[in-house]
Design brief:
Radius of gyration: 21 Å
Helix content: 25-40%
Structural class: alpha+beta
Largest sheet: 8 strands, mixed
Oligomer: single chain
Strand content: 15-25%
Strand order of the largest sheet: 8-10-9-16-17-15-11-14
Amino acid sequence: MTLPMSWTEWAQHDGVALAARVQKGELTARELARQAAAAIAKVDPALSGVVEVFEDAIADPGKDGTNLEGPFAGLPFLMKDLGPTMKGRLQEMGSLLMRGNRAASDTFLTSKMRHAGLNLIGRTTTPEFGVCSSADNPAIYVTRNPWNTDYTTCGSSAGSAAMVAAGAVPIAHATDGGGSIRIPAGVNGNIGLKVSRGVFSLAPHLSDLSGLVSIQGCQSRSVRDTAAFVDHCRGPAPGEFMPFWSAAEPYVETIKRDPAPLKIALSHQWGDFRATPHIAAELEKVGRFLEGLGHRVDYALPDLDYRAAFDAQTACYISNFAVVIGNMLAARGLERPPADLVEPVNIRIWEAGRHTSFAERARMQAVFNTTSRSFGAFFEEWDIILTPITALPTPKVGTTEYLTISDNPSVLDWFGNLWRNFAFTPLANLCGMPAISLPLATHQHGLPLGIQAIAKQANDGLLLQLSAQIERAIGGQWNAGRKPGAHVTNARAGS
């Protein structure tokens, strides 16, 4: 099969650039789809990041209502197998229990994506129900890191992160309930923005205010792709019962200007959780780089009860996931999760959370309130908080202590172990703040290390503006210009 571009040329384009070539008549949406399908076939045997490619969407990009005149002009786009549904398509959520689950309709955000011109060409891997840190269960699939396939992609947006990092597609769907956009972006060398609460709609499901923590978004390799995705997919559905933020101008325009000098706080310890000395040193290096761009950088922390905040976050996850699993059981006429179809830790989460009382949720929400107020007070003085994405090195595939196939009998201990590595991401979800992972550092074992920037609610544009300033300063060479071994430009990518 003759493809319209060499793999080097394909990998050099971001999504906005590919869409522009279609709009100029240099390429067609069908040619882009064919190239993306070939890219997936080239890299996925080594990575196992794609559950299914929709052959009909490859053959006919406009088949499912994709607006080929939209700003993304039929750009191939992979959907995480969790969250927004696609009419008539399977959504199996990384679970044996959900095998054969087919969506009856598009969700509101799916329709926004199609209207923007994104051609939804397939599904990517996720841990069961998006709960744990990696899509790593041999009974279903094991998704591997393109930089070194002995290591995990982390998660829960595992397959999307792997496919973007490997150059298969420039941008892909992701979700974030405690870091699930930013963590895999950080360990795979991508850009991952968790927007503020009140940007993307979950309609017709409960809003992200009632869900409290979960956010939609994308993985990308350029700041303008992320900015364009937010610009064209944001906004409320009819009947939202919470306010939605609006921007004074499109983010793709905002990012063309550098921000004014910012006050940036560095932090590599949150409460009981501390980054390794190497990771702390990498954070400090990035801080010095930002000083060179004219920003004021110093060490500072919000004044809050971190232990109480993480306890409340844990209570939120346990009670939320117990309800999710309970609803799935009820729909199938089951009284409890079958041990042969649901992973052990998820069964324990259901057992621990199914009888959560309103009073317990109210106490949890009171901690959310005080925590959010503390961050709000901090952002009266500081513009940005800069942290590492993870506190520890990326785990190898099969490190079960972070997985829902773990035999840990204690749900609280299992979550506590998660926070030891992934301490820096979940509080942004708890408070509804925007946060972005940027591929600016490196672990001791050579894999990418994301650096996270957090801002106050609705300051998503400032994060993107700072990110674009950094991108220009490094000449667009994220990851110091390095590419992973499993990459479309590598002849042995699929070996």
